[in-house]
Amino acid sequence: MCGCSEGSDAMVSSDASIPKWPLRLAELAGEIQSPPSLATLDAARAEAWELLNFSISKYLRIHSTRLGAVSREDFEDIAAEKSLDLLRKVESGAWDLSHRPAADIRGFLSKVARNGLVDALREAGRRVEPADEDRPEWEIGVTGEEITMSATEAPDIRVEQKEFAGALRRCAENLNPRSRLVWFFRVFLSLSSKEIAAHPEVRLKVTHVDVLLQRAREGIRECMKTRGFDPQDMPPGVFVELWAAFRSSTL
């Protein structure tokens, strides 16, 4: 059994920022579709169910911080329904996980959870705000709207928070110094392009700043995906972790 209740994202590959559970799920899918024995099939089904239910529940919690919460009963129903549906698709071969990278599996499960939550909210007659299409998820809410973590928050969210923050920092470190500084000023200080351009450590035209920002965002987005993180997966409290890491310097 996977022991998911204490946070399966603690299972990581040689790069500690990349959770290992999506690849384990792919392995289990292969065992389910071509089981060497009935006992193996039953064990694979049970572990796959745990991983699916754990991951969808986690993404439901993450998306509910932005889209809106549902009752505990609805939350459990969504997670169970989506997990069972995906397990059936694995068994039938409709959902093929072979040769899929961890980022694709994580991103797909995140979208499944988000769609389930949106459907539940709409059925309850609650308005769902559209996503901010112009800014990456990790740049939304930095100016005071970011939801902070309580002392009683679920352990798996805390693990995800630290992993996401660590991966985002490493991706930012891959930028050249000027692009990194421009990105930092926009994300953490919410400076306008004009203000960044006039900063004594930047001194560029506004159009040049905009180009650097766009390239920095694209670079970080691709870097995060290679590390197994989808922009929609940002847990609450990430910027608390990041600010603690960045406050002494701009990387």
Task: Explain how this protein is built.
By secondary structure, this protein is mostly helical. It folds into two domains: 4-123, no CATH class; 137-246, no CATH class. Helix content is 61%, strand content 0%. The protein is built from nine helices and no strands. The protein has helices at 21-33, 38-67, 72-92, 102-123, 155-173, 177-189, 193-198, 206-226, 238-246. Helix 2 (38-67) crosses helix 3 (72-92) and helix 6 (177-189) packs across helix 8 (206-226). The radius of gyration is 20 Å and the shape is elongated. It starts with 20 loop residues before the first helix and ends in a 5-residue tail after the last helix. Mean pLDDT is 75; it is low at 5-17 and 131-154.
How many helix segments?
9
**Overall body shape:** elongated
Percent strand equals under 5%
Helix and strand composition category: mainly alpha
- Kindly state the mean pLDDT as a whole number? 75
Q: What is the distance, rounded to the nearest whole angstrom, between the alpha carbons of the first and last residues?
A: 41 Å
Helix content: 55-70%
- The tally of strands reads 0
What is the string of SSEs from the N terminus onward?
HHHHHHHHH
> Please, how many domains?
2
The biggest sheet amounts to: none
Low-pLDDT regions: 5-17, 131-154
The gyration radius over C-alpha positions equals 20 Å
Strand and helix map with partners:
Blueprint: H1 21-33, H2 38-67, H3 72-92, H4 102-123, H5 155-173, H6 177-189, H7 193-198, H8 206-226, H9 238-246
Compact description:
With 251 residues, the protein is an all-alpha fold.
